[in-house]
Amino acid sequence: MTAIEENRITIAPLETPDDIATAKEIYLDAFPPAEQRPWEKILSRCDGKLDLTGVYMNRRLVGMITTWDFDGFTYIEHFVIDPTLRGRGIGSAAIRLMQSKCAPLPLLLEAEPEHLSPQALSRIKFYQRLGFHIIDRSYVQPPYDTYLPPVHLWLMSTSADLSPQQASLLLHRVVYNVARS
Prior knowledge:
Elements: E1 4-6, E2 9-13, H1 17-30, H2 39-43, H3 45-48, E3 50-57, E4 60-69, E5 74-81, H4 90-102, E6 107-111, H5 118-129, E7 133-136, E8 140-141, E9 151-152, E10 154-157, H6 164-175
């Protein structure tokens, strides 16, 4: 993937050791253990199926996005912006860039249900402002490891027509390596 730019925000492959170390720090701080893919598996790109993209502001890494490309949609597994820089439009610009990059395919992601916390409600509204729709309120993310619990999340997509059942089955089988959901 080549770099794509919106104003001063760019998304591009994460490649330098310094950027990878910064991304790891932002990632580990942002997600609870039950929602973290082991960092080593992210770096291995899950056998070439996962893309690791940096979000840059004025050429400085400020966030990261991990994605999986499928025939009918692009799945955003993780998306995080440095918490000290949130609220400045960086995340919105990064998602719009991903939408442009993946067009005409819709984007799909998992989000915490809005009733869990004020932050979860804020995230849901953030994604809705960017054109995402809640397509499944009963989705369960399989655990990343046997000692972790499954996580109840909502599926959101930029296409209200995306089948939540088909998307869920594909995510469970390919992303989480679970035969049945």
